[in-house]
Each structure stands twice: as structure tokens, then as C-alpha cells.
Amino acid sequence: xxxxxxxxxxxxxxxxxxxxxxxxxxxxxxxxxxxxxxxxxxxxxxxxxxxxxxxxxxxxxxxxxxxxxxxxxxxxxxxxxxxxxxxxxxxxxxxxxxxxxxxxxxxxxxxxxxxxxxxxxxxxxxxxxxxxxxxxxxxxxxxxxxxxxxxxxxxxxxxxxxxxxxxxxxxxxxxxxxxxxxxxxxxxxxxxxxxxxxxxxxxxxxxxxxxxxxxxxxxxxxxxxxxxxxxxx
Length: 233
Ligand SMILES: [Zn+2]
Known about the structure:
Helices cover 79% and strands 4% of the residues. With 233 residues, the protein is mostly helical. Strands 2-1-3 form a 3-stranded mixed sheet. Helix 1 (2-42) packs antiparallel against helix 3 and helix 2 (44-81) packs antiparallel against helix 3. Residues 192, 199, 201-202, 204, 223, 225-226, 228 line the site of zinc ion. The site of zinc ion has 9 residues, from loops.
């Protein structure tokens, strides 16, 4: 029975590792998804800038339209100046033209400000796109390293599964089935050492009678509480 326990222990060494690697494999897609979501979140600033650019351009167009209609009005009134008969009417029309011209120069100033603003937003967009490109490269490289880990882990798991199967192969079918059942239930930890009269797997106190049975090594003894196969050094 001592040989059986030794084989179980060698098998368990692999199984613990296999379960840890499989856990890592399960986490990889979750981690990749989190990175992708984080990257999606990074895009909001660019969307905000693009929206800001759009509304600024719309406002600029309105101002340009406004300026054009005022200029046309001025042209029209200047044409009317020729046909004016009285000084009073002439002065009043000139006053109106002057007012429109003042309005025009106000709009022109606003247009200059808008154009500056647009140039500034466009520059911010260029920079933001550059930042996002760097982030995208970073994301791709992180994803690639996860792919490498994934491949490595699968290869390691494959090798260790072959090794553990080889350890179990010489054992009775009944013993193999028992081991497999506990391994599956206890995530790779099918065995537990008795340490200071306690099961190292669950911490439960083991009866002296049971400890004796384990020491005798005549049969496989399992913990009453956690069902792990017990052993002593
Ligand atoms: Zn136990």
C-alpha cells in the first residue's frame, strides 16, 4: 500500500499543477475581455472631441451665412443710396449701412475665433488618435502574451496529464476510480497528510484508530470529513 500512496502523491503533484494551470486558462478570456472593455472606454474622449468639432463647424457655417446675408443687405442699401432725394433720407440710410457694417465686423471676429477653435480641436483629435493607437498596440501585445501563456499552459497540462496517467496506470481500477473521484471534487488535492492528529486538507481531528490504520498502510484510508486519502510521512 505504501507504493500506492507514493504513486498517488506523485500523481497529486501533477494534478495540483494541472488544476492551477486550468484555472489560469479560464481566467485568460476574462482578462482579455476586461482589457478590451477598458480600451473601448478610452475611446470616449475622441468621440467627445469629434462631436465638439462637428458642433463648432455648424456654428461657423451659421456665422458665415449670417455674414453673407448682412453683406448682401449692405450692397443692396448702397445701391439705394444713388436714388435718394433728400439729405435726411441719405443720412438715415447711411446710418443703417454703418450699423450693418459694424455687425459684420463683429461676426468676422467671431469667425476668426471659431476657426482658431476648430484648428485647436483638430490638433487635439490628432493627438488623441495617436494616444489611442499606442493603447491599441499595447492591447494587441498584451493579448499576444496571453495567447503565448495559453499555448504554454495547454502544452504543460498535456505533458502532466500523460505523466499522472502513467502513475495511475499500474493501480487497480477501483483505486484509480477512487482517486479520480476525489481529485475532481477537491480540485487536484486528493491526498491529505496527517499533521499533529489533524487532516491537513480540512483541519478535522483524526481519531487515533484511524491514524493507526494509516500508519499500518494496509488499506486506503480516507478522511471522514473531506474524503481525501490520508497519509503520513
Ligand atoms: Zn479531511
